[in-house]
Design brief:
This protein has 406 residues and is of the alpha+beta class. It has helices at 22-30, 50-57, 96-107, 112-116, 119-136, 142-147, 149-159, 166-176, 184-207, 213-221, 230-261, 264-271, 276-286, 319-322, 358-375; strands spanning 34-37, 43-47, 140-141, 294-297, 302-304, 307-309, 314-317, 380-381, 403-405. A hairpin with a 5-residue loop joins strand 1 and strand 2.
């Protein structure tokens, strides 16, 4: 009988910063439900085939909150990581009726049409950041000078939060997403400070609403047809500030690594800017540094890929591996910005928890790539793709820095 100590450790090691772990293809071919050991020491089962991942993500019976009896702890902190914590102190809007109501209130504010209206603002911020980067001179850490400040400035403008607090958001986000990097005491401190900050911001927006999303949600919450409590508004603000900059800033760095690591893809966009949307989708699909995946706690006996999965199992949806499933994508390891089904990747999830902010992320990534290829046509990785330093010990993956020259 295989014990937890005999299981392979997860996340898997990678042969190179931009390459997928060899285990991904092996598991898709041979083992649709693979048992692995998390940094906490607890066991989860990895799901790596496209259809299996999509089927579980779209099944509303199962929760991503790991507070159920027997659910796996993922991180090595005492609380088990971000999926074992409520959305904010004493609040949980992650599942069930509360989650559906929350999404209904937010979804109207995150349509592609509304996010497109932010494109001129995003472009202005991007141009200013590149101006500053060029003025300082080559080389530069693109993450520090562009990848992080762009989404932070955008989400601060969207929510009406002071942009000068961007370093606080970055620190709170890094600590919140720890897998092995921070202690429980550091998590508790960051979580408390983050909640207190957003709580004060909600109070301010309720008293003096402005032309921003948080003010809009505060006003909506006071209407008879849908009421969000103060705690729910705090959870919303925390979630948007964290997800609204951490994942996108990470993705700008990874996009730069992917496109400059095989520079013909970057040059193709320079030659034909119409390739930008398709290039973004292919970068999202082919990303190998997207973190550990998304968990689901199974509340009844089911089958996944023909394999029995018992009630009480914690499944890990490995979307990045599913995005390279040849059963869904022809020649999945080939970069093709004209891929016919390129938008059908699972990077933003699927089903009830499909990323509500994906329209904003797509606009930001398109603006970022368009600005880089227009303003920095000679951009190159200073040290080459194999020297990109992977961010380890975090749920979110990515690179610590991306040094470039031009």
């Amino acid at each position: 009988m295989t014990t937890t100590s005999d299981l392979p450790n997860y996340p898997f090691d990678k042969p190179a910063p931009l390459d997928p772990p060899t285990e991904w293809a092996e598991l898709r071919d041979t083992c649709p439900v693979a048992r692995v050991r998390m940094p906490s020491g607890d066991e989860v089962s990895l799901i790596s085939r496209y259809q299996d991942v999509r089927d579980v993500l779209t099944d509303g019976r199962f929760t991503r909150d790991l507070n159920e009896p027997g659910a796996a702890r993922l991180a090595d902190t005492e609380d088990g990581g971000i999926f074992s914590r409520p959305s904010a102190p004493d609040v949980n809007i992650s599942d069930g009726d509360g989650h559906r109501r929350w999404r209904r209130l937010l979804s109207g504010s995150f349509t592609m049409k509304k996010m497109a209206q932010w494109r001129p603002t995003i472009q202005s911020i991007a141009d200013e950041l590149v101006d500053d980067m060029i003025a300082k001179g080559s080389p530069a850490d693109l993450m520090a000078d562009f990848g992080l400040p762009l989404p932070v400035a955008v989400i601060c403008a969207l929510l009406g939060a002071p942009s000068e607090d961007k370093d606080k958001f970055a620190e709170w986000s890094r600590i919140s997403l720890t897998l092995t990097r921070y202690t429980q005491a550091e998590v508790n401190r960051a979580r408390r400070e983050f909640a207190e900050y957003v709580s004060a911001l909600v109070v301010e927006k309720r008293a003096n609403p402005g032309d921003d999303l948080l003010s809009e949600l505060t006003l909506i919450s006071d209407a008879e047809d849908g009421r969000l409590s103060h705690g729910e508004l705090v959870a919303t603000g925390m979630g948007l500030l964290l997800a609204g900059h951490e994942t996108t800033s990470n993705m700008i760095g990874k996009m730069t690594g992917i496109l400059l690591g095989a520079r013909e893809h970057y040059e193709a966009v320079i030659a034909d800017p119409e390739l930008i949307p398709g290039t973004i989708e292919e970068v999202l699909r082919m990303d190998t540094n997207g973190g550990i995946g998304i968990p689901r706690y199974i509340t009844e006996d089911i089958e996944v890929g023909g394999c029995p999965v018992g009630k009480g199992t914690t499944l890990m949806m490995l979307m990045a591996a599913a995005n390279r499933d040849e059963a869904r994508f022809a020649e999945p390891d080939t970069f093709d910005p004209n891929r016919a089904n390129g938008t059908q990747h699972l990077t933003f999830g699927a089903g009830p928890h499909f990323c509500v902010g994906q329209p904003l992320a797509r606009v930001e990534l398109q603006v970022a790539l368009g600005t880089m290829t227009t303003r920095l046509p000679n951009l190159q990785l200073r040290d080459g793709a194999d020297a990109l330093p992977m961010r380890k010990g975090s749920f979110g993956g990515g690179f610590e820095n991306v040094w470039v020259t031009w």
